[in-house]
Amino acid sequence: MVSCPHISDCPLFAVFTMNSALAVWKTNYCGGDHSRCVRYQLTAEGKPVPQHLLPNGKVLHLTPLPTR
Ligand code: SF4
User: Fold this and answer.
1) Which pTM does this prediction carry?
2) Which of 8, 22, 35, 37 to mutate to test the pocket of ligand 1 (most atoms within 8 A of CB)?
3) SS3 for 53?
4) How far apart are CA 37 and CA 27, in angstroms?
5) C-alpha 37 to ligand 1 mean position (Å)
C-alpha cells in the first residue's frame, strides 16, 4: 500500500510519530489506506484542515503532561 503523500507536511503525522499511543493512526491511515483520512479528503478538496482533526473526523484532545 502506498503511504499518504502528505506525510512530510501533515502536522498530525509528526504527532503520531512522537507519541507511541497514537501510532495506530499512522498504521491505519498514513501508511495504510490514507484515502479514508478526513484530513486527506479535505486537502484533496482544497478545503482548510483543522489543526487537531483526526483521520476519522473526530478532534484530538491532547492533555498536557503534569509538571513536577
Ligand atoms: S493524518 Fe491523514 S493527511 Fe496526515 S499524513 Fe496521515 S493519512 Fe495523510
Assistant:
1) 0.86
2) 37
3) strand
4) 12
5) 6
C-alpha grid cell for residue 54? 483526526
CA atoms within 13 A on the CB side of 45: 10
Contacts of 10 (CB under 8 A, 6+ apart): 4, 30, 39
List CB contacts of 36: < 8 A, sequence separation 6 or more.
29, 55
Kindly state if the Cβ of 54 falls inside 6 Å of ligand 1: no
Q: What is the pLDDT of residues 8-50, one digit of tens each?
A: 999 999 999 998 989 999 999 999 999 999 999 999 999 999 9
